[in-house]
């Protein structure tokens, strides 16, 4: 039986949903906002999926779409965010819960990361996901050298925030 485009998308999204949740953690401060942003990123990925040509890994492409969605919504946060009704879509993604033990350790880091600007957040997120500088550069549309320089500056900034 041939796999449909929806089945293919749902499978890839299931395999990569932690990417979306981590981006949501960076750009939101409460669970309702997290769920709204996750939903909007899922919808934007679905809308863009027919244009995915497979020239890069799905995860790299998903990073780019999800980060652009988060940054766009973050910049428009003073305005009302229009979202599509999640229930209208025929596929459902089960949200995974965070480990409560890790939650406490992550709070200080996320609090520090929330103080960074949107591009710095995207860069540190990808770095923490063990993405190499070439993939970070490709995803963010900057040079590899620029990614390395920015990352070193961000590390210094986070050290100052975490250890005043």
UniProtKB/TrEMBL annotation:
Organism domain of life: Bacteria
Keyword Transcription: yes
GO molecular function, one term: sigma factor activity
Residue ranges of domain RNA polymerase sigma-70 region in the record: 12-79
Keyword Transcription belongs to the record: yes
Pfam families the UniProt entry points to: Sigma70_r2, Sigma70_r4_2
Keyword terms of this UniProt record: Sigma factor, Transcription, Transcription regulation
Record-level GO BP terms: DNA-templated transcription initiation
Occurrences of domain RNA polymerase sigma factor 70 region 4 type (ranges): 108-158
Family under the similarity heading: Belongs to the sigma-70 factor family. ECF subfamily.
The protein, known as: RNA polymerase sigma-70 factor (ECF subfamily)
Native organism: Flavobacterium aciduliphilum
Lineage of source species: Bacteria, Pseudomonadati, Bacteroidota, Flavobacteriia, Flavobacteriales
